Amino acid sequence: MSLIGGIRPPIAVLSALLLALAALTVLVLGDADNAGVPKAVLTSQQHFAEDGAIALRASIDESVTDVTRSAALFSAGQPVSGDAVLDKLGSTYQKWMGTAVVEIRTGKLLAARGETVPLTDVDTSSLSGENGLAPRMVRLKNGEVRLLSFGLLNWPGRPQLLLVASRNLKFPGISLGQFRSIAVADASGAILSSDGIAEPESAHNRIDRKDIKDSRKQLADFARQSAGEARQDPRSSKEPGSGGYQGVSGSLLGGMLLSDRSVAGYATLAPPSPGETTTASGLGLSVIAMVKVTEESARVHSPVFGLLAGGSLLVIGALAVAVLLGTVQRPLIRLFLESRRLTRGDLNRPVTVPGYGEAHRVGAALERLRRQLLGEGAGTTGPEPRPRGVRRIGTRALLAICAVLLLAWSAPLMLLVNRADRTAEVPRQLVNDQRERTDTLSDRVRRALNEGDADLQSVASLIGDRTTPEDMERVLERTYNENQRYRSLYVVGSDGAIQAREGKKPQVTQSKRVSSTPLRLLGHGGRQPVVVAAAEIPGRAGAELVGEFRVPFLNALLTRPGLGVVRLVDDRGQVIAGNTGFLAFQSLPDGHLRDLAAASAQRLGKKPRPSGVLYRENGVRIAAAAPFSGSGAAEPLGWSVVSWQPVDRLAIPQYEAQNRTVLAGLLGAAAAVACLGWLHIVVARPLRTLADRAEALADGDRKTVLFPQHHDEVGAVTRSLELVRQQLQDQRRQQPRRTPPQSQQYTRN
After folding, report:
1. Which of 59, 332, 35, 85 is CA-nearest to residue 174?
2. Which of 175, 226, 284, 475 could bond to 436 as cystine, CB 3.0-4.6 Å?
3. Could you give the CA distance from residue 308 to residue 311 in angstroms, rounded to a whole number?
4. Is the confidence at residue 747, as pLDDT, over 50?
């Protein structure tokens, strides 16, 4: 018999699958562990730390690039004093704690702004070596850490000057909300800066003082743990194929304080693309975000449910297998044995005829063939009457009955049982995280637009009125290559005519290229939004440097895991950019989101505030909206970032139980369809064909050759019928031929 054909393998596989599924159902659906901190909350903290790492990495890299680019632009122009350099730098960028200009040869301080730059920690003799101008971290006497960035000011005939900018390691624009703290740690786990935990001196009583002390200790423990995790390869820190964040990231579970448990996410500073290296990613820094959550102790479901589901599957599966064994396998094997008996010449005992369907028809045909082999004619045996009533049930009907039995167990699990309906408990922390991460993302987009405007202001101020078109093209080419945010850079006169250009063809018409507004949104009603920044060039009679932002650049800023669908909308509520496909200037998909965006844009006090809500209409989902809130050229735009995601995709205990229940039902249905379909293909259809051929042979068809299609029980019965056909033909040849009677001859007398 064939190993993959025949009737035994499908039934054996079905039995094994049902047993395994029953055991799996008891283990998985009967898991009654306490919910504790849901996995979705831990994952959310991991994403929060990743957001902080991305923001810090982008801020550091942008700061270093601004210093080096500004120094190169100053060096390309006419020589200016150190004070002029710092004044121009301070009016364009407001990101450094302190700046200074030093003469490299003598070490003399020529100009300084802001806090005192720790120049004593800078060895000017090593600046000419390899990576001599690489940024470095310096710890001050008060314990704070500063990151120093360097740029060379080099004019012909003048001593070389060193431009030094000092900044802290604070996070730009990270929305912490309540009860959250965030820190930056080095490779050894030492905390370099932190935010969100009050100083012990601000405590009002002993309980607050103890809480602050415990929080600081827990954050330090998390920093040491994250430092150990950060040493592994990023590819081995995640599940294969998971993708996501390029660096090492994860979540940590801390100790209990009263009814709250500390949880944290950590992430190393990683480059935006694989294989790329940036200044910030080479500093060995990690970000730790810690928050206190209330630990849930309620059970999601009882272990009795898993026992009942697994036990019922065993009962139903045993019944289905018994039906297959008793009504399909045994009759077919009996037919196989009876057919072989006839081919061996054992014709004395009548054929045992099965009681149902095709097997009954084949058995009746074998009995008629046995009698024909004993010498009876095909006409004398007569056709066997078709079975009636219950005996008409064929193999296909029996397989359908078994399928109904198994689907009666699977369908309720897939559609009805253990549903996480609108009453599912969604942790409040998830709503808070959605709001705070959306607010962080909104600030990230606002800062990116402000940085673009500041870059244009810096370049425009250095072009001046003496720069030739050739020099302008070189400056534009350098700026365009250093900034991936622009699709086009060009200098226009007061009439809008282009004097120099780099990048793609401008989308802005000539009449709209000159404007007193630094940032504008154009293209309403078109297929693509056009975000334009402009900076006036001093001394050129109204000429401006115009930059058009790339929409993919804005889309990339909005791409963050764990936030669902993210949209950047203008002051009219129309979509400008998104992390998934969208139509330009379309409205948000439903009224709830539009109302949420409009409500969050309303000012509460001096500025609007982000909002986060949980909707239980048309499916449970979390949504948040965060308007631009802060200074800079982008703030008057009135844009907002809106995000939403369905809750059933999060690792919440109720939905995890529902997903496991649905999976069990799907596995049961798949096992039933696969094995019963297998039986239908290799047994039911060939057996129906065999019944027709056996009846035709019993009715006297001796010419049709019976050829088996498969080497299994049905094929064996077919071969036996072919041998019986050949025996009947030989028997017919051996019978004496009847000679017709001679006609009487009449003769005339």
Report:
1. 59
2. 175
3. 5
4. no
CB neighbours of 582 closer than 8 A, spacing ≥ 6? 567, 575
**Total residues found in the chain within this entry:** 749
Q: Which residues contact 400 (CB under 8 A, 6 or more apart)?
A: none
Diameter over CA atoms, the chain? 165
Neighbours of 560 (CB within 10 A): 21
Beta strand spans in 159-259 (E): 161-167, 180-185, 191-195, 249-257
User: What are the pLDDT digits (tens) for 602-659?
Assistant: 887 778 889 999 998 888 899 999 999 888 889 899 999 999 999 988 888 888 888 8
Q: Closest Cα partner for 293 from 318, 260, 317?
A: 260
pLDDT value of residue 748: 46
**pLDDT value for 383:** 61
> Contact 378/369 with Cβ under 8 angstroms?
no
Q: Are 651 and 680 in contact, with CB atoms under 8 Å apart?
A: no
Computed on alpha carbons and rounded to an integer, the radius of gyration of the chain in Å comes to: 41
Residue pair 378/699 in contact (Cβ under 8 Å)? The answer is yes
- DSSP H helices, 344-427, are 357-373, 378-381, 395-415
Which structure tokens are listed for 550?
């790339």
Which is it for strands 575-578 and 249-257: parallel, antiparallel or unpaired?
unpaired
DSSP code, position 158: S
Whether the per-residue pLDDT at 243 is higher than 70: the answer is no
Q: What amino acid occupies position 128?
A: S
- Indicate the DSSP class of residue 586: P
Give pTM, 2 decimals. 0.79
CA–CA dist 76, 146 (Å, integer): 29
In one-letter notation, the amino acid at residue 649 is: R
- Report residue 303 as tokens: 């272990």
Give the contacts of 282 (CB within 8 A, at least 6 positions apart).
none
559 and 579 Cβ atoms separated by less than 8 Å = yes
Closest by CA position to 586, among listed 566, 598, 569, 564: 569
DSSP state of 484: T
Q: How far apart are CA 581 and CA 244, in angstroms?
A: 19
Q: Which two tokens stand for residue 171?
A: 């996070």
In angstroms, how far is CA 26 from the centroid of its own chain? Answer: 29
For 676-701, the DSSP string reads: HHHHIIIIIHHHHHHHHHHHHHHTT-
CA–CA separation, 250 and 229 (whole Å): 9
Among 228, 651, 626, CA closest to 441: 626
Q: Answer whether 518's CB lies under 8 Å from 533's CB.
A: yes
359, 688 Cβ separation under 8 angstroms: no
Is it the case that residue 586 has pLDDT exceeding 60? yes
Residue 557 contacts residue 566 (beta carbons within 8 Å) = no
Give strand ranges (E) for 516-655.
519-522, 530-536, 544-549, 565-569, 575-578, 603-604, 607-608, 611-615, 621-627, 640-646
For residue range 594-615, what is the model confidence (pLDDT) as tens digits?
999 999 988 877 788 899 999 9
